[in-house]
Amino acid sequence: MTAKKVPPDREIESITIKDGREVELFVYSGDDPPPYELRVRIRETLLNPEAPWISYGEQVHLTKALSGQIADQSRDYYYIAVLGDEVVGTTWLGTDRRHLGIGSIGSVYTVPKLRRQGLASALVARACADFEQAGGRALYLATGNPGARRIYEQAGFVAYNGNVMRRVSPGISAQQLDEWLFGSADRKQVRSAHWGDLARATALFTRPHPWLIKDYREGIYSHPELPLQRCNSIFIALMLRSTQPGACLLVLETPGGGILGTASITPLDNQAQAETAELEIFVAPEHISEAPLLLDEVRNRARQRHVKRLLAWVAACDSGRMSLLEQAGFAQQAELPGQLVVGDQEIDLYLLLCQLS
Question: How far apart are CA 229 and CA 344, in angstroms?
Fold first, then answer.
């Protein structure tokens, strides 16, 4: 089956690359997913064994988004470049179906023989234009590749936090964006997370934060000596973790769509410790006072899952996180001196325990 036959009634767009050749462009969404044969070829291209750059979690998300499995929650677009019968370039754009203001870019890939032909630049530019046209305010991505970084800079992305880059749409300042995402709001709610939360949770987790530990289980930290390497894969990992038996992931959300915090419980992988789970909680600094909303629901979910004890890890320098958990009934059980090494600084790590009645 050739690309030109997938599908037969679709109007074909094209991109002229630097050597003068025309590359066909197909745009698919979760509402209009690619045919199965093309999905297979897209996966094969992105999971090229010579360039294993996509994590297991990202592979799971790719499968779900490409096939339309999460279209009721997430608004995903795939920009697929085809030359002859070969998939030669891809780009993904994702937002929440209900909140289009924040998006993520990923799966930006060009086969080696067509690199430096302007293909990736064209795909990214098209995705950014579509995002803006739909009312998008900011896009997030991460890359440690200097060549890819130049492509993103040409599309309007700027350095944000470590390898994370952000593109704020014209007419909006970074200050206005952060105020919209993390400013004061009434009627906050706590609910279970879903795949549509990816981009807005990415905005939360990639933002600089005074706490050293953002998520201990995932090894996500906030410190100049530990530049952030990850972007979309953070939330994907949290979502996959929440699918474990007895686990859950919660978000603290404003009516306008800002995600102000997350909390998760993950049972220990030991039958003898089935009644014990680990807690991870992360909240925007402006809304630490709202964290009890998350913790109250955590207790409810834990009891429903017959969890009797919650464990949490806290860095000695994270006094705000320590105070928050102590007020919620956690007490220090153990100290690991110098467990965290940041630059030339050794930081103690505390284990806290909360007994649920």
Answer: 20
Q: Label the pairing between strands 331-342 and 220-221.
A: unpaired
Q: How far apart are CA 133 and CA 153, in angstroms?
A: 20
* Amino acid letter, residue 108: V
In sequence order, the β-bridge partners of residue 87 are: 82
Q: What is the DSSP string of 7-53?
A: STTSPPEEEE-TTS-EEEEEEEETTBPPPHHHHHHHHHHHT-TTS--
The 10s digit of each residue's pLDDT in 60-90 is 999 999 999 999 999 999 999 999 989 999 9
Range 3-135 has CATH code 3.40.630.30: yes
**Structure-block tokens of residue 264:** 């998760």
Cβ-based neighbour number of residue 134 at 10 Å: 14
Q: Alpha-carbon distance 249 to 202, whole Å?
A: 14
Closest CA to 113 of 42, 12, 19, 43: 19
Q: Is 240 helix (H, G, I), strand (E, B) or coil?
A: helix
pTM more than 0.70: yes
Instruction: Report whether the peptide linkage leading into residue 7 is cis, meaning its omega lies within 30 degrees of zero.
Output: yes
Alpha carbon 253 to chain centroid, angstroms: 16
Q: What is the rounded distance in angstroms from the CA atom of residue 38 to the CA atom of residue 32? A: 13
Strand order from edge to edge, sheet including 189-192: 189-192, 248-253, 259-267, 276-283, 309-315, 345-355, 331-342
The sheet with strand 74-83 has its strands ordered as 13-16, 22-29, 74-83, 86-96, 102-110, 138-142, 164-168, 158-161
Using left for φ > 0, alpha for ψ between -120 and 50, and beta otherwise, residue 50 falls in alpha
The length of the chain, given as a count of residues: 357
The distance between the two most distant Cα atoms of the chain, rounded to a whole number of Å, is 70
pLDDT digits (tens, 9 = 90+) for 118-168: 999 999 999 999 999 999 999 999 998 999 999 999 999 999 999 999 999
Amino acid at position 319, single letter: S
Asked if domains 3-135 and 181-355 share a fold, the reply is yes
Interatomic CA distance for residues 84 and 309, integer angstroms? 59
Show me where the domains of the chain are located.
3-135, 181-355
The CATH class that applies to domain 181-355 reads alpha beta
